[in-house]
Amino acid sequence: MLHQHRRRMRRNKPICWLNSSAQLFSVISWPGAFQEYERKESDVLATTFTLIKKLNAQNSNPIPATQCNEAARHFIQYVNYQKSKVATTDVTTPDPLWNINLEQDANACIGYFFNMIVDLNNDNIVPDALTITSSNYSRIDDMQRFVRNNFAFATSDWINCKNKNESHIGFTEPRFMFDLALPANGESTSLQKLIDDYLKPEPVTLLRCQHCNTKHDDTKKTQFTQLAEKYLMINLKRFAGRVHVRKQNNVVECTNPVVLNCNNEYTAYKVIAAVNHHGSSIYCGHYSTDIAVSNGYVNCNDAVIKQKTKLNFKECYVLLLEKL
N or C: which end of the chain has fewer CB within 10 A? Predict the structure, then answer.
């Protein structure tokens, strides 16, 4: 029965961005290092992962709002630390959960979650709100290896010098979220079309070419240099503009499973979860998560679970694909 379905989370404050992210993460097969990671009172990673473990527990009771609020407070503390390099927000006062900002966004939440794992052993980045104990040090390498192998991808930009007919290349650091821009005119598109647009050659103007040392127009081509072994996390960039950040409601067609062509290599993926944004801009609205099950999907809307037959490709915001 749907009311007995797992991944139910209560809330009494605007933290649907955290709930939907945790519900998406709950479908991932996390290794034992995450399960054994020890927490202290205000540990943001352990508090967040406690939610993920409880979402996977064989228990039909929703996670209480107090625990969700606690994880959200610690998460905002971590974000504030990253922005200022000084922990600025006390756990109890003031209450940050009412102050909506761009960081309280499901896409940003997922990105920060990966970043805090990668930066765990960086003393210049990690605040007190992360537990780096002797018992946890033995698990950190396994945790970082898991996210890098299973989520990270990288691209390279090839720029051709027309004057000397030579190419030079620039590599990007591995990333965990594949950002795909949507057509500005609002027209329907497909996931493959968005990837093709991302990879297609585009004109660039070089202030100084490293081959001929002159300024001229060239062509830049992007290619994948690394694809993750298991998952592909896609962010559909629905929010455009610098003032109102209005939402683009393009329909993004995607079969399930879907075969994607990256660098002329065809790979089959299954969409196992999707975070949806319901609303007109990034400053207002609500998040929910669709999770693939044997007979379709279930929509996890905090503590409310509903059966559905297909994904809403007009409101899906973050897609989690698993390689078949």
Answer: N
